[in-house]
Design goal:
6-stranded mixed beta sheet; binds guanosine-5'-diphosphate; alpha/beta; 8 helices; binds magnesium ion
């Protein structure tokens, strides 16, 4: 855990969760964005973890918490129990692995069951640097995103392609969504770092 502090009073808390099958590059994506690092090894994620990034946007300060999950079946319940407290979802598949792409509709439906149709979400096709291993074309990615009315990027954590663009696109959607629909619950009061740690301890 990187950060245990509550946001400073002038920071607006925003929570984002990263979902997708095992090994699509969720942890790598978060580490690339928050720490600008990349490792070739699979960084096994236990349950749910999170990283913080402080950003300034339109002269306002935000504390962006990015929740990492594991695609493993037994932790799906934990991920979806936390979903009610997050403002947006990044859904990742691996362009070299068909099964991860086939799971995209399931992830979207599960998220929409909890959060509704208008919930801010973005689809990312990762590992486009592996040109020879690619199985899913850009067009196939665009098509599924269009079908569900979601924004879409192809990314590479390894070669730093579209990482910032992806996050900022979702971030803007989240802000618009909060402006339009308000925030039913204040994510600070319902998911403080302390509560989060307690819940995680229980489950792992
Ligand atoms: P997670 O299970 O979804 O969190 O996946 P990880 O972030 O642990 O990544 C799984 C594997 O994919 C690791 O070996 C990473 O190094 C690798 N990986 C992640 N992103 C990329 C990428 O953009 N390109 C390549 N070539 N490998 C990647
Ligand atoms: Mg992981």
């Amino acid at each position: 855990m990187k950060d245990t502090s509550e946001p400073s009073p002038d920071e607006i808390p925003i929570k984002i969760m990263v979902l997708g099958n095992t090994a699509v590059g969720k942890t790598s994506f978060i580490l690339k964005y928050t720490e600008d690092t990349f490792q070739e090894v699979h960084l096994s994620t236990v349950g749910v973890d999170f990283r913080i990034k402080h950003i300034t946007y339109n002269n306002k300060k935000y504390k962006l918490s990015i929740y990492d999950t594991t695609g493993q079946e037994r932790y799906k319940t934990l991920a979806f129990s936390l979903i009610k407290n997050v403002d947006g979802i990044i859904l990742i598949y691996d362009v070299t692995d068909i099964s991860t792409f086939k799971s995209v509709p399931d992830w979207i439906q599960s998220a929409r069951e909890k959060k509704g149709e208008n919930y801010p979400m973005i689809i990312l096709g990762n590992k486009i640097d592996l040109i020879d291993k690619r199985k899913i074309t850009t067009e196939e990615g665009e098509e599924i995103a269009k079908k569900y009315g979601l924004d879409f990027y192809e990314i590479s954590n390894k070669e730093s392609v579209n990482i910032e663009n992806a996050i900022m696109t979702l971030f803007q959607k989240v802000l618009t969504n909060i402006e339009q629909y308000g925030r039913k619950e204040n994510p600070n009061t319902i998911l403080s770092s302390k509560t989060f740690k307690k819940r995680k301890k229980k489950l792992c």
